[in-house]
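User: Please predict the structure of the protein below. I'd like the answer in structure-token form so I can feed it into my own downstream comparison script.

Assistant: Understood. Taking the following sequence of 197 residues as input:
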Amino acid sequence: MSDSINIRSIQQFFNQCAPTWDETSEHDTRLIDLILDHAGITAGMDVLDVACGTGILFPDYRRRQIGSLTAIDLSPEMLRRAAEKWPDGTFLCGDAACTDFGRQFDAIMIYNAFPHFLHPEQLLENLKRFLKPTGTLTIAHGMSRDALQRHHADHASAVSLELPTIEELSKLFSRYFTVECAISDDHMYELSGRNRL
């Protein structure tokens, strides 16, 4: 890990990106539907969106008629914009790797964000505590691993770690969850699993 990457630098980077984030982010509804299908997110569920950004997935959650939304992000500027899109949600500003959410969720989603967590195992270990016994946790990116690596090299190398291969992440993930979906192809990257009791 580069010594220059820290929580503060990540927070500052995304605060600066927040005003134009929605306009510059690609949103492939068909691909996101596939990701959410694999994640098992359906009507009535209590969902935790980790590193929610400006709420990119919120329209997709709304179409699925989830029961409740809790969202957390390190960037107050990102979070402020997200909160405007879901007035009755619960919004927390902080690091999900060490936050006590005070409740459990049916599904936890980490979308387009995993390389920005400095301590991945701590993140998974903490989130497991707040996942219902039958709940699912999903790490996903709406592009291939190679495309993401190129994107971060061009735009966010100062605030990104390398995304593990799907095999590497599955090995870590399986310490806490039963892997149900592992995809890394030319279009997407997704690892989803059920809480291991």
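That's the full token string. DSSP finds eight helices and seven strands in the chain.
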